[in-house]
Specification:
Radius of gyration: 21 Å
Distance between the termini: 57 Å
Largest sheet: 2 strands, antiparallel
Number of helices: 18
Order of helices and strands: HHHHHHHHHHHHEEHHHHHH
Number of domains: 1
Length: 403
């Protein structure tokens, strides 16, 4: 049996297991899909409301596409199961692009990493909107050089579903030589979405998701919340876990929290701009796409996670696309961060859904898992930033700059 056949068999088995995990433990991992997404689909399909057009929404408007697609077959299939099949189908298309004929060792290594990542993160990695964006991000990134218009268009569509692929678009604008194609495709997709929303009468709500994100508190899983979680577990007076009924999430509260909330968005913006500037300098000095894009994309994505005051477990799926590209282009250099990423994903699944109740009551073991996961995230972030700084530039260009 060929390696290509084996990896496709593994694809089917891994997705079957993860779909099953969505139904385990009273559907804990798929709660958002089962409750929120099903409800949003019902509102739109019955004409009662259309989040993102008739009212502000926490997601960009194209997030309605997968939600409505699963809802359209809800009469024939359970909504959660329909969602699992949708994600599996999208993964299969991108997986086919990645594996190809199965002759590239880098692509096969990346394919096995992706499957291991899906299994390591479990149900929460599949039963969230982020799962729809990952295959779009993988396929789009793989096509950036040969088909920049198509690659950029896929990344732009993914960005209008969940914002994080904008980091990959930014890395592409910096690292891809055919920048006008990347910018043109992204602009065309964005203009089409905006025009459609305005025609539908929802222009006032087109960017409603932006304000919602900036007003959020410190989610308990976010790296910035780690100190507060440790303090709360140690019984420090005034530090506690609280529930936000509007956002349906758990946050930390304690001395200085409001100040931290106020500075986190500026820190996130400044950090990502600094990373982008470092990448732009490398590109200006002649760094190749192969060397620059994976490191820059990974640094930007990790910046969105590490410097974020929100730390939902599904955010860890964002790591898949830049690590897949790194393995495809230079598997020997990227295998170590790939292994570290798998450890991060596995710890994340242990935290949610399996140990989440223990985390909420500040059980020392659960808080210890969270601390370990966040320390590994910081270590991975440090690795990719150092890798970005060490990206080699062309000698001729370097001499011309220094003369």
């Amino acid at each position: 049996m060929s390696g290509r056949a084996v990896v496709w068999i593994a694809f089917v088995l891994v997705h079957a297991v993860v779909v099953w995990l969505g139904f385990a433990d009273d559907r804990a991992a798929s709660w958002d899909v089962d409750q929120l997404y099903r409800w949003w689909a019902g509102l739109a399909l019955t004409g009662e409301a259309f989040p993102g057009i008739t009212a502000d929404w926490i997601y960009p408007v194209l997030a309605q596409l997968p939600i409505l697609t699963a809802g359209a077959v809800a009469g024939l299939l359970d909504y959660v199961f329909a969602w699992g099949l949708l994600v599996t189908a999208l993964d299969a298309v991108a997986f086919r692009v990645l594996v190809g004929r199965g002759r590239s060792r880098g692509r096969m290594a990346a394919a096995w990493f992706w499957l291991a990542a899906i299994l390591a993160l479990g149900g929460v990695g599949m039963f969230r909107l982020d799962a729809v964006t990952v295959p779009l991000a993988v396929a789009g990134s793989l096509w950036l050089v040969g088909r920049p218009w198509l690659g950029s268009a896929l990344l732009a569509v993914a960005t209008w579903i969940k914002v994080w692929p904008a980091a990959l678009l930014a890395a592409a604008v910096i690292a891809v030589r055919r920048r006008l194609a990347v910018l043109g495709a992204a602009a065309a997709v964005s203009a089409t979405v905006a025009l459609a929303v305005f025609v539908a009468g929802g222009g006032a709500h087109l960017l409603g998701f932006v304000g919602d994100q900036t007003s959020r508190g410190l989610q308990i899983e976010a790296p910035v919340s780690t100190v507060y979680m440790v303090m709360a577990a140690a019984g420090v007076p005034g530090v506690e876990v609280v529930y936000d009924f509007d956002l349906i999430t758990f946050q930390v509260d304690g001395p200085g929290v409001e100040g931290v909330i106020a500075v986190m968005t500026p820190i996130l913006v400044a950090g990502t701009l600094a990373i982008a500037a470092a990448g732009a300098l490398k590109a200006w000095r002649g760094a190749s796409f192969v060397a620059l894009f994976p490191a820059l994309a990974a640094a930007l994505v990790l910046g969105l996670i590490v410097l974020n005051k929100v730390g939902s477990p599904q955010y860890m799926t964002w790591l898949v696309a830049p690590l897949v590209l790194g393995l495809v282009l230079d598997r020997r250099r990227w295998w170590a961060p790939a292994a570290l990423t798998l450890a991060i994903l596995a710890l994340t699944q242990l935290i949610f859904p399996f140990w989440y109740d223990a985390l909420l009551v500040l059980a020392p073991a659960a808080v210890g898992l969270l601390v370990a996961r966040n320390l590994l995230l910081l270590a991975l972030f440090a690795w990719v930033v150092v890798r970005l700084v060490r990206v080699r530039v062309r000698p001729a260009v370097r001499r011309r700059v220094t003369e």
